[in-house]
Amino acid sequence: MQFRTQIPISKSNSPIDYNSKILSVGSCFAENMAEKFDYFKFQNETNPFGIIFNPVSIEKLFSRVCKEEWFQEKDVFFHNERWHSFEVHSDLSNADRQELLETLNKAISETNKKIKEATHIIITFGTSWIYRNLESAEVTANCHKVPQKKFSKELLPIEVIQKSIQNTIDLIQTLNPNINFIFTISPVRHIKDGFVENQLSKSHLFTALHQVLKIHNSQFTIHNYFPSYEIMMDELRDYRFYNEDMLHPNQIAIDYIWKLFSENYISEESISTMQEVDEIQKSLRHRSFNPESEQHQKFLAKLQQKINLLGEKLPHIKF
Fold first, then answer.
1. Is the pTM of this model over 0.90?
2. Where in the numbering of this chain does the GSCFA domain appear (predicted)?
């Protein structure tokens, strides 16, 4: 008997392996997946400009990166004793204006290089709702607790999102025409916008993204779509799979979604290496009752031997 429906997932034609170089960008769910990539020691870079939720802000950052348009003094502002940019997350904000500009421009330079070297890029869209700065008329990636009266709140039309996603693909492909795209919609619900408004927001993302994928994939340019939202809403449709806020997937849900991702988007040859890495990670977290004992010293020597053997096969893996 089947007690739940399961989401069918197509296997990737260009799976990720331990030689792959991955760039992950987007909402907080991108960070959840990136933690898994980091744990299993894949070559992964995540959100160099912090968490970004809406497709227009993601496009704007890729435009800066791909064209190497540096941040200047006019692109930052002072608020609550820190310098910020409306184009990036508050994690990058700084008490020193020059330091902020240097950090942002270093991120542009390094991300430009990462895109050129990357084999896969994973983009996670979170919302269609945006805040527009009334003074500049620009879409903001983060409001940095500036009073809400300074912004208008808008729902991006499907056509605007579709064009934005297409522009993002075009920009990235100018630097790296061979890169593999993986798109997903974040399973995190943005209830602050309202329950109906959240559904409307996600539906705009779905419609726009699938229109883009339909055009590309009909031209034999296969861009993959991973159904993380559908897995959360359908296979895991129970509040026991959520954090206490009842909005974000908990660790069980993240582990399950990762399991489905790895089964379909990671090469079969890499699974055994992932198991080796997992064993080492668990051993490194082991705490001995008697660290000086002969038994523990043997355990450490054996563990180091495993690390060395793996390092010989894959030199980029460091513990």
1. yes
2. 21-261
